[in-house]
Specification:
Radius of gyration: 17 Å
Helix content: 25-40%
Distance between the termini: 27 Å
Number of strands: 8
Largest sheet: 8 strands, mixed
Strand order of the largest sheet: 1-2-4-3-5-6-7-8
Order of helices and strands: EEEHEHHHEHEHEHEH
Length: 249
C-alpha cells in the first residue's frame, strides 16, 4: 500500500509503503512490530524474504514500512554536511547534512501517522545499509528512545572522518539507560581505501569488548562484500530481532 506524506521538516512530499507479515494474521494477534526500512525501494525483496523466515504463528504481526527517497538519500542519511567524502560526488556533497531533519520527520510525523494513537505499545526497529546504516546509528545515538532495535548493515561510519564513532563512544559512556538493541553486520571489504574499512572494524571491536550496557550483536561475513552481504545479513538480523523481542506488552 503506497502512501504520500507532505513533510514540514523535509519541505517536500515523501512516499512510503506498508507491507504486513503474515498477510492474514490470526484473530488472536496482540503484539505488533513496526520495521522502518531505509532504502526501502531497493531492499524490500530482501527484507520480505527475511521476514518469511519467522514463524507466522508466533502471535505477532510485522509491519514493514518502506521509505522511498532515491533522489534524496545522501541528504537524508548524513548527520552533518561534509566537504569531502571518498564515494560522493561534488553535487552529492552539497546535499549532505539532512540526517537530523530526516530523524525529526520520522519521530514527529511519519511514525505517529503510521502507528496511530497506541504507538507506545509497539515494538519498533530501524534497518539501514551503507549510508542508511549510518543514519540508523545516528537515530540510535540521538533518538534511541524511538526504537527497540537498530540494525546497521555495513554502515558508512567512515563519513565525516568517522565522527559517528566519537559520537557513539560518548553515547556508550553516557549515564543514560540504553534500552535499544543493536545489530551490526560487517563484510570483508578488500578495499585499498583503509580509511573507509577500518572505522567499521573499530566499531565492531568496541561492541565485542562487551564492556558497555548496550545489548548488541555483531556478525562478520568474511566471504561477502559491501553489497553482497545484504541478503545474508538481513535474514540473520530479522531472526535476531524476533528472538530478542519482548514476549509481553
Amino acid at each position: 500500500m503506497k502512501q504520500q506524506y507532505v513533510s514540514s521538516f523535509l519541505h517536500n512530499n515523501r512516499s512510503f509503503w506498508i507491507y504486513h507479515y503474515p498477510e492474514r494474521p490470526s484473530d488472536t494477534v496482540s503484539r505488533h512490530t513496526y520495521i522502518y526500512l531505509l532504502d526501502g525501494e531497493t531492499l524490500f525483496k530482501k527484507a520480505m524474504k527475511a521476514l518469511r523466515c519467522i514463524d507466522p504463528t508466533a502471535n505477532r504481526q510485522y509491519h514493514l514500512v518502506l521509505l522511498g527517497n532515491k533522489e534524496s538519500r545522501v541528504h537524508d542519511y548524513t548527520f552533518e554536511q561534509s566537504q569531502q567524502a571518498p564515494f560522493l560526488s561534488a553535487r552529492e556533497l552539497q546535499a549532505t547534512g539532512g540526517g537530523e531533519d530526516f530523524a525529526m520527520f520520522l519521530e514527529r510525523e511519519l511514525i505517529p501517522a503510521v502507528e496511530g494513537a497506541d504507538m507506545a505499545s509497539h515494538e519498533r526497529c530501524i534497518i539501514g545499509h551503507s549510508l542508511g546504516g549510518l543514519e540508523a546509528l545516528h537515530m540510535l545515538i540521538r533518538h534511541g528512545q524511538l526504537f527497540n532495535a537498530c540494525i546497521a548493515i555495513e554502515p558508512s561510519v567512515w563519513f565525516k572522518q568517522s565522527k559517528i564513532l566519537r559520537k557513539f563512544n560518548s553515547f556508550l559512556h553516557s549515564k543514560r539507560n540504553i534500552a535499544t538493541r543493536l545489530f551490526v553486520a560487517a563484510a570483508n571489504n578488500r578495499s585499498k581505501r583503509k580509511h573507509t574499512v577500518l572505522p567499521l572494524r573499530q566499531l565492531v571491536h568496541t561492541l565485542r569488548q562487551n564492556k558497555h550496557k548496550i545489548n548488541s550483536r555483531t556478525v562478520y561475513y568474511k566471504h561477502l562484500q559491501h553489497f553482497s552481504v545484504v541478503p545474508a545479513a538481513m535474514v540473520e538480523a530479522i531472526r535476531w530481532l524476533a528472538r530478542t523481542e519482548k514476549h509481553t506488552l
